[in-house]
Specification:
Helix content is 56%, strand content 4%. The protein is mainly alpha-helical.
Length: 108
C-alpha cells in the first residue's frame, strides 16, 4: 500500500469536502481575506476553466480519450459496468469540457 506524502495530510479534508464553502469563507475572513471569502465560488469556476483550457492547449483531447477496457471488467454491487453508459457519460463530459474551454476563449 502506497502512502501519501505527510505534507499532504492537512489538505485531504478540503479535497474530500469535509469543510464546506461557508466554513472556508469564515476562515478566510478571520485572517483578513474578506474579499477573497466573498468570491470563492467564482474563483473555483475560474480555476476549473483555466485547468481545462491548459489541458486542451497541451494536447488533451476529451473526444479522442478512450476509457481503458479493464474498466469494463469491473463488477460492482449493482452488477457489471455498462460500457455503453460509461462511453455516453465520457462523451457528455467531453462536450462539457469543450464548452468550458470555448467559453473561456471568448472571455479571455
Amino acid at each position: 500500500m502506497r502512502e501519501s506524502p505527510s505534507h499532504l495530510h492537512g489538505e485531504l479534508p478540503f479535497a474530500r469536502g469535509v469543510y464546506g464553502g461557508q466554513l472556508l469563507a469564515e476562515c478566510l475572513e478571520s485572517v483578513g481575506y474578506s474579499a477573497l471569502a466573498d468570491r470563492t465560488d467564482n474563483i473555483a469556476r475560474d480555476v476549473q476553466k483555466l485547468r481545462w483550457q491548459t489541458r486542451l492547449r497541451t494536447g488533451f483531447d476529451p473526444i479522442r480519450f478512450m476509457i481503458p477496457k479493464r474498466f469494463l471488467d469491473v463488477t460492482t454491487w449493482r452488477g457489471k459496468i455498462n460500457g455503453d453508459f460509461l462511453r455516453s457519460l465520457k462523451d457528455a463530459y467531453a462536450v462539457a469540457i469543450l464548452k468550458i474551454s470555448e467559453h473561456e476563449k471568448t472571455q479571455g
